[in-house]
Amino acid sequence: MTKDTSQIAGDFVQLARLALTGRPQDVQLLVHRAMKRYRSEFPTMAESLSALLRESPTRASPLRRQSDTPLPVDIDSRLHLLRVENDVTLDHEMILTPDVEASLQQVVIERHEPDALIKAGLQPTRTILFTGPPGVGKTMAAKWLARQLDRPLLTLDLAAVMSSFLGRTGSNLRHVLDYAKSIDCVLLLDELDALAKRRDDRSEVGELKRLVTVLLQEVDDWPATGILVAATNHAELLDPAVWRRFELAIQFDIPGEKQIEQFATSILTPHLPEVGMWAKIFSLASRGKSYNDIEREIMFARRSAAITGTSLSDQLKTVVRADKHLSRKDRIALARLLEQSGMTSQREAQRLTGVSRDTIRKGSAAGAAPRKKVHA
């Protein structure tokens, strides 16, 4: 038996095994690999396989197709291991940097153009890694993908999957991933570092290290019909092998001044007439903060306004108080903007920012338009 014949025989046996175990997504993955492997030697067969993939029932089936398998549960606690959102909605639109937006848009476009990818011997992006500090939009980006693709979002509940019996944690993880592979969905593995820590971390017991191996195997075999999104606040804790397994890595950063202004505008527009000026104020006062921090402060102000019967503008003054993280230069700029906006007096701007009235006054005078000389 030649080497080529041996390879074909092995692929055929593997295909039969997957078909008999009822794993259509894995069958598709194997067929796709075979199409690429034999394209040069058997072009007619490769073209036939490509046509089968384009016409496959899984691709033509409704995105709402659900698995007949019940949601996986922990054997001890009987808690569900996944949270499921069938109709994903966002509280507000995401504010993204151009690079992040372009990456996410391409993932969506790839799913809308499957034939072009298959013809080129390619698959759409299957696995994505989101990294960045807390509160910068990683979870919302996963929701956005699910909404754009009209797919359910499945989120792994780490508290439930980490069994008190460590030997069962790997089993829980396999149950979750096998279930997610059986339906067309977006699966979010949040706080990935809790599962996929570096395997050379001596503080971890052997069972937790073996979870990394389980995860790597599942990521490698993830079907092209679904999207696996993993998110972490601590990218430095991830095992190096994890990075190599994900096809796309997207870094989410703390928002800049422009992004904060856009975000504050989107949050405040339904509730405040003078939203433009307040958005500018927040872009200075919230420098270095996450979207989550900013939204929390605005929601606090809205609740305060509701229960006290005061204006939202008055309550917003209490949350733009200059934090210690702001530099003196930023505090001076914030004080002058508050005073020039007419939202506060110089005295109140001083109280909120800690900048002296004399400094505010000098800045206001320097920024004033020069008066025309009057000739006698």
Oligomer: single chain
The shape is elongated
SSE topology string: HHHHEHHEHEHHEHEHEHHHHHHH
How large is the count of helical segments?
Answer: 18
Distance between the termini: 110 Å
The total count of strands amounts to 6
Rg, alpha carbons: 27 Å
What portion of residues is helical? 40-55%
Percent of residues in β-strands? 5-15%
Helix/strand-derived category reads alpha/beta
Model regions low in confidence, pLDDT < 50 over at least 5 residues: 57-65, 368-376
| CATH fold annotation of the largest domain | Rossmann fold
Domain module tally: 3
Architecture of the largest domain, CATH level 2? 3-Layer(aba) Sandwich
> What's the CATH H-level homologous superfamily of the largest domain?
P-loop containing nucleotide triphosphate hydrolases
CATH class of the largest domain: Alpha Beta
Spatial order of strands in the largest sheet: 1-3-4-5-2-6
Mean pLDDT: 79
Largest sheet, strands/sense/barrel? 6 strands, mixed
Q: Could you walk me through the main structural features you see in this protein, from its secondary elements to its overall organization?
A:
By secondary structure, the chain is an alpha/beta fold. It has 3 domains: 10-60, no CATH class; 82-251, Rossmann fold (3-Layer(aba) Sandwich), CATH 3.40.50; 257-366. Helices cover 54% and strands 7% of the residues. It has 18 helices and 6 strands. It has helices at 3-20, 24-37, 43-54, 57-60, 98-112, 114-119, 138-149, 158-161, 166-181, 206-220, 240-245, 257-268, 275-285, 291-308, 312-319, 328-341, 346-353, 357-367; strands spanning 82-85, 127-131, 153-156, 186-189, 227-232, 248-251. Strands 1-3-4-5-2-6 form a 6-stranded mixed beta sheet, with helices on both faces. β4, α10 and β5 (227-232) form a beta-alpha-beta unit. α12 (257-268) packs parallel to α14 (291-308) and α16 packs antiparallel against α17. The longest helix has 18 residues, at 3-20. The protein is elongated. The termini are far apart. Mean pLDDT is 79; it is low at 57-65 and 368-376.
